[in-house]
Every structure is written in structure tokens, then in C-alpha cells.
């Protein structure tokens, strides 16, 4: 995968710094970094998706501005590895943990250790379930993400204007990620009525969340499933649309449909999420129809503000105290809004906001 230029550059800078100091600590630059307010442990799930690398860079930057050092670790989608990383952060005396969980469950014991050490715990983008020891949650409105995906497909196919029937296949994220169900439910709130009345036809018959999840958010798994569906259910029939929950899966699905002979105007309408640079370029080229932009700069700002306020006696910014029940408690949450992006607005939204440069997206 080709990562955004600024991500690859920052990764190189971090690597040089780590060699120089012989440890995994990072910090901001300038005068703020000289004021050491303690260490923040940042545990993120994977480096496979470019968005998590951007998240890591953003969190290190935001905490550095506030005067904190950071210990940033990636778990390679391995929950046991993430637990070991969290335990090391707790043992080393980190003041708080920012956790983008590999799995929404299974962290109860390690977070109990964090609570015993009086550490603040922030669930980052993915809700951590089955524990009382998560203090706050910073995320986007993930049901809204799904609604935006479903709405794009409905509008791109012109479903309100009648016509059809149109064929569609459904994909969801990993079953162990709490957000996956929210994305799917949001999209299906738009699409299900059209499936029920026959305007949309799922030729595979796979319409339940359990049938369409993608283990580990794996692009390869999505590509293989799409290939099987095309081989078994389509033949000479044309696939008109695919609900895909994120850009990485979308690119795998796109590989499968192109291998089956789809090109140009025959390509199905494809959704996505995260506005990854490779997918933004595909949108500009007319191959991927849509993505959902979640400005992770703002998410990092929200998580760092929550943390700093909790550690300094301030008031963490919260705008939702009812929606996110993790099975043990309702977790106080700061909810950000996602933005729908397609060929008509990718430049204004992504380049206009400074998230990417015009050179990066090729505009």
C-alpha cells in the first residue's frame, strides 16, 4: 500500500529519533515539549490501514504540543500483542492510555490493572466493551457513516426515481469491532427498504450482518469473497453496486470485479470510508465512487483534550452521555461528524481542509 507522503516522511523521522534515543518514546517539538507532563501510552491496532498511521502521527503531535511524551505502539491486529503492550505501558508508569482496540472485548483484565494504577483510559474510535475501566470514548458518529454510504448508493443508482431492479452485494467489517455493526446498521437503514421491495437484489442471498462480515478487516478476505460471489451468482448478470465499509476492503473488492472484466462505466458503484489517499485517487479516476471522510486530526485533538483535562482537573469535552453502553456502563463520549466524499467534492473537502495537498491527490 502506498501511504500519504507526509505519513511516510513522519515514519522516517520517528525511526531516526528512536534509533537516536534507544527507546520507543516520542514527543512534540518546540518549547512545549520541554515541559514534561508525563508519558501517554498510545495503543493502536494495525499498520495495514494508512488511517491508523495518520492517527498515530496526529496523537503524538497533539500530546507533544501539550507537553507530554508518548509511547506509540501498533499491535499488528494481534490482541495478545496489544495486551502485552498495554501491560508494558502500565508497568512503565504511563499516566493515561489511548486505546484503539484490536477487539472490542477481551481487555477487561488489563484495564483493571490500569484502573488500579489510577490511569485515565480513553477508548479511541473503537468502543471497548465489557469493562467499567474505560473513562471516555472519542469517536465519530459511526451509524451516520453507514447512513452516508447507503445514501450514496441510493442516489448513485437513482433508487427514488424508480427503475431497476439493481443488483447489490453487501460487505461489513470485522465482527470483533463494535463499529462494524454500527456501519452496517446505518447503511441498511437506507438500503433495506429497497431490498425488501425488490428494487435492490442481493443475488448471493447474503444479507445478514453475520453473513457479510470480513475477518480482521482484511482486504484479501474481501477480494476472495467478492470473487466467489461473482463466480457463483452472477455469470452473465451484471453487478451494479457494492456496500463496502472502508477503503481498504473497497480496493480488494475493486481488484476482484476488475479481474472479472468490469471496466469504466460497467464498474459497480462502490462505497468506502477513511478517505485513504489511494482511494481518493481512485475516486478522482472514477473507479471508486465514494468514501467517508473522518478527519482524524480532530479525533486526535478530542482524545488529547479529554486526557489532559482528566489529568489536570479540567473538564473533558463530552457531547454524548447516553448512546454508548459497553455492556457494563454508559461511556461518556465526544462524537464527531463524518463527511460524505465523492468525485464532486473530494477536492474541496480534502484539499481545501489541508488534509491532502493537490499534488498528493493529483488534482
From TrEMBL:
Signal peptide: 1-19
Top-rank taxon: Bacteria
Chief localisation class: other
Regions crossing the membrane: none
GO cellular component, one term: outer membrane-bounded periplasmic space
InterPro entries documented for this protein: Bact_Solute-Bind_Prot2 (IPR050555), Peripla_BP_I (IPR028082), SBP_2_dom (IPR025997)
Molecular function (Gene Ontology), one example: carbohydrate binding
Name of the protein in its database record: Putative multiple sugar transport system substrate-binding protein
Location in or out of the cell: Cell envelope
Keywords attached to this entry: Signal, Sugar transport, Transport
Ranges of residues in domain Periplasmic binding protein: 40-314
Organism of provenance: Cryptosporangium aurantiacum
